[in-house]
Write a structure and sequence with these properties.
There is one protein chain. The radius of gyration is 23 Å and the shape is globular. α3 runs parallel beside α4. β1, α2 and β2 form a beta-alpha-beta unit. The protein has an 8-stranded parallel beta barrel with strand order 1-2-3-4-5-6-8-9, surrounded by 7 helices. It has a 3-stranded antiparallel sheet with strand order 7-11-10, with no helix packed on it. 41% of the residues lie in helices and 13% in strands. It starts with 7 loop residues before the first helix and ends with a helix. The longest helix has 21 residues. The protein folds into 2 domains: 205 residues, Aldolase class I (TIM Barrel, Alpha-Beta Barrel), CATH 3.20.20.70; 142 residues, no CATH class. It is α/β, with parallel strands linked by helices and 472 residues long. It binds flavin mononucleotide. The site of flavin mononucleotide has 30 residues, from β7, β9 and α9.
Length: 472
């Protein structure tokens, strides 16, 4: 398979795997960032509202470990102006390589960071916000679906948001929200991302600074045990929603907040933790941990053990590679096995056949974009379910192969408006027509394989509709 890391994002970040640790406040400290970097990924220190002294200490620790490619997350909208100013001065003085920002778009801050040579990443929850962030100067966009753990910016499921964002901006896009498996990685790449962001999956890592209570609650949770709520809000702009594990607090059993009254339920390094605050329990937290915000994304049901960050990344990449390999050699595709879809490089030369490579690549890119657009309209129905539908997970290895053969351009052809009128049957027909016009080889194999997957397993109605059309 074409190297998963062979994309502009990995070159920009300087990592060898397209997997990024979210800048989780409190949880993503230097120990976890270093472990992710050592495993080939890229990590952000979660430094929201942290003191300049802690930021400097954590950056120093990373540098002493020899990690020089990392980032820092801060959130202007959730930080008082004095502290924010001191945080920014610290980041500039430390010359950190990258900063990721979240919530309201702060154009002046983006400019300042860029002028200092810092790579700016913005996490967004809508297409409009992605466009604004790019216009402000962000060099990478994180499309955060509503399946994400922690603070959730938008209301759109990732399967819909990701291809739309990838089509609307020029800069590389990362997918975030409920991701935890190799299948999720392939699905995200096939829908326009150049990598994935992991929060919850790495919150459960040995090296994360989360309290064991939180980690064990993640292990015990099933898919569907999370919910979006405004219950945990102290310290944040009004109306901000978080995704957490359901608990007595979210069920209203700890009562409602009384204006002006703060109930202390714990302590974090000498700082009181209040009921309904956004603080989640850390290694250094004591008190009523179960009543704190137990952040979790909708992928939580796939987390079964507390493992090292390396084991988590290795597992995701191995699973992704296995999926691609088995797609290329599945019995249904055996007839085509001699020209594996895995060899993305094959498109380089000029075809002797009916269509030349450039035209065939263009057509394939349009088809891949149209398929992504159809999938974008069919996200999982349950808002608390993992982000990708079973049909998206089924189709994505083949869609990714097609995308790579088309030169990785698929999602960029999706620029808005999307293509709402394309039906699965239309698509299957278009794939059939194109495969008849390209010579034997990797591209034809990918097209045939994709079409049969569409008709056989995913959308049998597409095949029926086609046959009916052919018969009339
Ligand atoms: C415990 C926790 C803390 C988080 N804190 C932050 C934060 O401080 N800043 C931020 O930009 N995003 C934060 N997020 C959101 C992540 O950036 C990301 O969108 C999310 O983790 C992705 O979904 P997932 O948790 O299902 O992987 C947090 C998420 C979690 C789970």
């Amino acid at each position: 398979m074409k190297d998963l890391a062979d994309n502009p994002l990995c070159h920009m970040l300087g990592c060898s795997r397209p997997i990024v640790l979210a800048g989780m406040g409190g949880v993503a400290r230097s120990e976890l960032v270093a472990a992710v970097a050592a495993a080939g990924g890229f990590g952000f220190l979660g430094m929201v509202r942290e003191s300049p002294e802690l930021i400097a200490a954590e950056v120093g620790r990373l540098r002493r470990l020899g990690i020089d490619r990392f980032g820092v997350n801060i959130i202007p909208a959730a930080t008082g102006s004095d502290l924010l100013a001191r945080q920014v001065e610290t980041l500039l003085a430390l010359r950190v390589p990258a900063v990721t920002l979240f919530w309201d778009i702060d154009t002046r801050l983006v400019r300042r960071l860029r002028e200092a040579g810092i790579l700016v990443v913005y996490q967004v929850g809508s297409v409009a916000e992605a466009v604004d962030a790019e216009r402000a100067g962000a060099q990478v966009i994180i499309a955060q679906g509503c399946e994400a753990g922690g603070h959730v910016r938008g209301a759109t499921p990732l399967q819909s948001l990701l291809p739309a964002v990838a089509g609307a901006v020029q800069v590389p896009v990362l997918a975030a929200g409920g991701l935890s498996t190799g299948g999720d990685l392939i699905a995200a790449l096939s829908l326009g991302a150049e990598g994935i962001v992991l929060g919850t999956a790495l919150l459960a890592a040995e090296e994360s600074f989360a309290h064991d209570h939180h980690k064990h609650r993640l292990l015990a949770a099933k898919a569907g045990d999370t919910l979006l709520t405004e219950t945990f809000h102290i310290n944040w702009p009004h109306g901000a929603r978080v995704r957490v594990l359901a608990s007595a607090v979210t069920a209203g059993k700890r009562g409602r907040e009384v204006e002006g009254e703060r109930v202390v339920i714990g302590d974090e390094d000498g700082r009181p933790i209040y009921l309904f605050s956004t603080d989640s329990p850390l290694r250094s937290t004591t008190g009523d941990l179960e009543s704190m915000a137990l952040y979790a994304g909708t992928g939580v049901g796939m987390i079964h053990a507390i493992r090292s960050a390396r084991a988590i990344l290795d597992g995701i990449v191995a699973e992704a590679e296995q999926l691609i390999a088995s797609t290329c050699t599945s019995p249904d595709d055996a007839a085509e096995a001699s020209s594996s879809v895995c060899y993305a490089g094959e498109m380089g030369g000029t075809y002797m056949g009916m269509m030349d490579a450039a035209a065939a690549g263009d057509e394939a890119a349009k088809l891949a974009g149209a398929l992504a657009a159809v999938l974008a309209q069919r996200p999982p129905r349950d808002a608390n379910a993992p982000p990708f539908s079973s049909e998206a997970l089924d189709l994505s290895p083949r869609l990714l192969a097609l995308t790579l053969l088309a030169g990785g351009r698929q999602a960029r052809t999706l620029s808005p408006p999307m293509q709402p009128d394309v039906s699965p049957a239309d698509l299957s027909g278009r794939i059939g027509l194109l495969s008849a016009r390209v010579p034997e080889g990797a591209l034809r194999t990918a097209l045939v394989s994709l079409r049969s997957a569409l008709e056989r397993t995913v959308w049998p109605d597409a095949g029926t509709a086609l046959r009916q059309t052919a018969e009339t």
